[in-house]
Backbone:
């Protein structure tokens, strides 16, 4: 198969199969597109191939193994990021094999490439004092302060990913006292309904009254910015900027806040808080929207404080050992 066939399948995979058949989000499709572009850069740089010369014959087990090494050593990617790139390539080849049986052998060959070993890192969760200081930092005297407080509080309380919060609409919010909840759309367009604290519900109600007065459009972006007089969805960069801006102010009173923070640290903090409160891992898995409980288990393995408390609790119930030696003190000594 020639270069035309290769790029024809690239086009249909990105523009038809992923958005329509698999119904993946634009953010996920962009990451798949980035993986393919990076592979093309690798083939051009290391094999001196022009774009018009790249075919399925250029892609095999050795090429993808070299691609993984190139990502790790030349571009300095983390093992997890390199594995995501390779997984996207495998997904593309699986699609191609379904379209043309002649490509099944290439897919099976590349499928055997082992992922790079990623060291397990403990989640970099914020401490609870840091979370509380960050939530208080924006204040609520201004509309922007109200918005930022609501965003930070909701990310923490629902343990939500940034994109899940940005995709919220007024129809996804229920602030009924005692039954408050938000419906989040996570990876793979999977939805989950998360209970929220009454305090969070009150903040959401206040935000609705200010930013969505009257009867809000049910499908409008819940959080938005205004550009050229029009409501526009906020971006992930907007959230990262406001988090770090308020972290700088909060750090004066709470030195536990790290120099650079990201929204996932709030998500990690919520997961650790639930774990320490005794919530079972399977429930935390559903709360976080993890596909595999092994992903959730890293919180349990990272919590040294829980291990320490469990050991001390066990030690307190252990009977004192009876003395082994009997006799005069000088003999025992």
Residues:
């Amino acid at each position: 198969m020639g270069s035309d066939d290769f790029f024809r399948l690239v086009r249909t995979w990105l523009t038809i199969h992923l958005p329509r058949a698999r119904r993946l989000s634009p953010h996920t499709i962009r990451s798949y597109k980035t993986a393919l572009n990076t592979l093309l850069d690798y083939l051009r740089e290391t094999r001196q191939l022009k774009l018009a010369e790249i075919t399925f014959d250029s892609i095999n087990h050795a090429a993808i193994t070299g691609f993984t090494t190139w990502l790790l050593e030349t571009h300095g990617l983390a093992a997890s990021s390199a594995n995501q790139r390779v997984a996207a390539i495998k997904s593309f080849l699986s699609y191609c094999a379904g379209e043309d049986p002649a490509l099944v052998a290439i897919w099976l060959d590349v499928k055997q490439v082992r992922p790079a070993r990623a060291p397990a890192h403990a989640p970099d969760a914020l401490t609870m004092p840091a979370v509380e200081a960050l939530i208080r930092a924006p204040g609520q005297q201004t509309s922007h302060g109200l918005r930022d407080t609501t965003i930070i509080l909701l990310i923490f309380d629902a343990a939500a990913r940034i994109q899940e919060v940005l995709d919220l609409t007024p129809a996804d919010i229920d602030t009924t006292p005692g039954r408050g909840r938000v419906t989040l759309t996570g990876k793979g367009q999977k939805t989950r309904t998360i209970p929220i604290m009454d305090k969070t519900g009150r903040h959401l109600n206040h935000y609705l009254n200010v930013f969505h007065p009257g009867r809000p459009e049910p499908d409008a972006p819940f959080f938005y910015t205004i550009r050229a007089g029009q409501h526009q969805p906020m971006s992930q960069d907007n959230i990262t900027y406001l988090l770090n801006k308020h972290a700088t102010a909060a750090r004066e009173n709470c030195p536990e806040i790290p120099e650079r923070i990201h929204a996932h640290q709030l998500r990690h903090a919520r997961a650790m808080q639930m774990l320490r409160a005794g919530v079972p891992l399977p429930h935390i898995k559903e709360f976080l929207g993890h596909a595999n409980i092994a992903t959730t288990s890293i919180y349990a393995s990272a919590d040294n404080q829980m291990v320490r408390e469990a050991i001390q609790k066990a030690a307190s119930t252990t009977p004192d050992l009876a003395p082994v030696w009997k006799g005069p003190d000088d003999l025992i000594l």
Notes: The longest strand covers residues 181-185.
